[in-house]
Amino acid sequence: MHTVEPDVVTDVLIVGSGPAGASAALALSTYGVPNIVVTRYASLADTPRAHITNQRTMEVLRDLGVEEEVVAKATPQQLMGDTTFCTSLAGEELGRVRSWGNDPLVQAAHELASPTRMCDMPQHLMEPVLIDAAVARGTNLRFSTVYKSFVQDADGVTVTVEDRLRGDEYTIRAKYLIGADGGRSQVAEDAGLPMGGQMGVAGSINIVFDMDLTKYTAHRPSTLYWVLAPGATVGGIGAGLVRCVRPWNEWLIVWGYDVTAGAPDLTTEYAESVVRKLVGDDDIPVTIKSSSAWTVNEMYAETYSVGRVFCAGDATHRHPPSNGLGSNTSIQDSYNLAWKLRLVLDGTAAPKLLDSYTAERAPVGRQIVTRANKSIGETAPIFEALDGLSPQTPEQLWANIAARKGDTRAAEKQRSRLREAIAFKVYEFNAHGVDLNQRYTSEAIVPDGTPDPGFDRDPELYHQPSSRPGAKLPHAWITSGTRTLSTLDTVGQGRFTLITGIGGTGWLRAARAQDVEIATVVIGPGQEYEDPYGDWARLREVADGGALLVRPDGYVAFRHADAAEDAERLLAGALRRILGHG
């Protein structure tokens, strides 16, 4: 038992104010759970870092009430997608990939899949939106506060922190601790979370700079410009990367270094030389804002919690930025965990519910680490098409690039190989299924006994909506009076929702009879919600009188195909299992 009186007491202590920590705080405060965020830093992120924000994350932010603010500050989807491969921004263009949902067919899939749009929201803009909303709703935020250690017992966790301003240590007593302290997570290490994979597989440098590159980029608007240049294969990235932070004058370059030799001296002169190399124009004024070295990691936690200590975000999945999955997965981790903590803390659910966090999120973490690292390898064929992987002089690489313009069989073959290699990057830049197809299997999901039909098409490239238990509720546009809204807008807000149609009155009575708060949604002619396009009827996979029980995070937890005389018993049994009482 805890004996020494702590200095500060709260329900949940969150270490780290990045995307995982900030979104955990936002969700918990939205649900009315007291929480404290501590961060060793004196401010929020001051560099762009993570930036691609996918549809699933935007759905989470929509439910948490900050979607509009993010959209207002982000670069919109239509300016993200002409991913360009070139010898420098001013140099020769080798090809483009319509990316991030900007291919017309993929764009249609995006519009069918979600009420939200992906966008480019750099981390130094995202963190303040999340944290400001969290603090406004009740989060206590402590800057310059270093996590030192934790001790947990049957009733809670006592965490020792150091105030960097005063230089003294004090203790915070919490019922639960969330380690959202990034890729070098001390909380994950102290908790002894078992990890798979390895750290430091390659070296990279980020250079943030201001430079007006309008004349090289505005006509082919993109988040990413890939520069094939001699030496770029060092570090595993496959090419030098010029990333747009704000169109078209704020940028971030990613450049590789030999991790075995250590990072180069990151002087302003060195940074400027890399910028000039990749831009290919020595006349435009440039202002270097920051440079930092980091390592490419391929590591994932096999377990996300020990007792009352949970980890989220980069603490549990560490990988390169390929596919733009990092902050998205981090925010979704926290969203998955927050409602479960809330229900356990208020006594609605048994602590057993929290076991489903690892069961549901660890497979996702492992998948995205594998996918991100695989995407790096998928850049190699572009080099191979130009015979650019074998050691050679820069002059030889330029000669190979020039050779593709020749009127010969060999040049025609080279052009074909290059087109195919660039097109294959669709697995990195348009992996819609990776973004939206997560299916959960855990004790917090009640199977309906039907066989899993699997996916009709490549599950990494294509989203396939389903109302199966463990899948995210399908999006369809429905109406309520003069309002048009998404089916996703009827769920969430920290509570369970039962969706049914005409003939589902037994399910409505069953929902009202439970001890748990369950919102009810009836969709059909003359009901509170109507389905004028017929989209919901096509997607729901149950009859009018059937029912879907949707969790606070928008995932289907229970499904019944039709009306049922024993609806109350069925629903009560499902809830007992989901909440860990059965």
How does this model look, in words?
- Helices cover 31% and strands 24% of the residues.
- It has 582 residues and is of the alpha+beta class.
- The strands form five sheets. Strands 1, 2, 8, 9, 10, 11, 17 and 18 form an eight-stranded mixed β-sheet that branches.
- A hairpin with a 4-residue loop joins strand 9 and strand 10.
- It is globular.
Which runs of at least 5 residues are low in confidence (pLDDT < 50)? none
Count of helices?
18
Question: In which range does the helix fraction lie?
Answer: 25-40%
Write down the overall mean pLDDT: 93
Provide a quick synopsis of the model.
The protein is an alpha+beta fold and 582 residues long.
Write the layout of secondary structure elements.
Blueprint: E1 8-15, H1 19-30, E2 35-38, E3 52-53, H2 55-63, H3 67-73, E4 75-76, E5 82-86, E6 93-98, H4 104-113, E7 119-120, H5 123-136, E8 140-142, E9 145-152, E10 157-163, E11 169-179, H6 186-191, E12 195-210, H7 214-217, E13 224-227, E14 240-246, E15 250-257, H8 268-279, E16 287-301, E17 305-306, E18 309-311, E19 317-318, H9 326-345, H10 355-377, H11 380-385, H12 394-403, H13 409-423, H14 426-429, H15 432-436, E20 477-480, E21 483-486, E22 496-500, H16 505-512, E23 518-522, H17 535-539, E24 547-550, E25 556-560, H18 567-578
Parallel strand pairs: 1-2, 1-11, 2-8, 5-13, 11-18, 22-23
Antiparallel strand pairs: 3-7, 4-7, 5-6, 9-10, 10-11, 12-15, 12-16, 13-14, 14-15, 16-19, 17-18, 20-21, 22-24, 24-25
Helix pairs in contact: 1-5, 1-9, 9-10, 16-18
